Amino acid sequence: MFKLGHPSAIALAAAFAIGAAPAHAYMGAGVGLSALGSMLSFLGVMLLMVVGFVWFPLKRAIRKFTGKNEDAPAVEADRRDDDTQT
Fold first, then answer.
1. Angstrom distance (rounded) from CA 14 to CA 8
2. pTM for this one?
3. Distance from the first to the final alpha carbon of the chain
4. Do residues 44 and 38 make contact, with C-beta atoms less than 8 angstroms apart?
5. What is the mean pLDDT of residues 7-23?
6. What is the mean pLDDT of the segment spanning 39-45?
7. Cα dihedral: 27, 31, 32, 36 (round 10)
8. pLDDT digits (tens, 9 = 90+) for 64-76
């Protein structure tokens, strides 16, 4: 059985890639627009993934290291309101 890194497997894969013939197929307007929409939505998802997994934790870490906390004044105001009600 061939292993993935075996030289003959690499040579066989290269031979298949070089010897591939073009499909000569027509893609109509409906399929083309659907493919374009799918590609754009995929790129949008990738962008949101970068924002969600990289930017927000990075922003939180920067806020932690600089000592700036946007929620602190609101929490302090809530504590004052609780003290006046009792």
1. 10
2. 0.45
3. 79
4. no
5. 81
6. 97
7. -150
8. 888 876 655 555 5
Query: Mean pLDDT across the chain, nearest whole number?
Result: 79
The one-letter amino acid code at 45 reads: V
**Hunting for tokens 């302090």 — which residue is that?**
76
Spell out the residues 6+ positions from residue 69 whose beta carbon is closer than 8 angstroms to its own.
63
With b for 16 or more beta-carbon neighbours within 10 A and e for fewer, the 43-74 pattern comes to eeeeeeeeeeeeeeeeeeeeeeeeeeeeeeee
23/40 Cα distance (integer angstroms): 24
Instruction: Calculate mean pLDDT across residues 40-44.
Output: 97
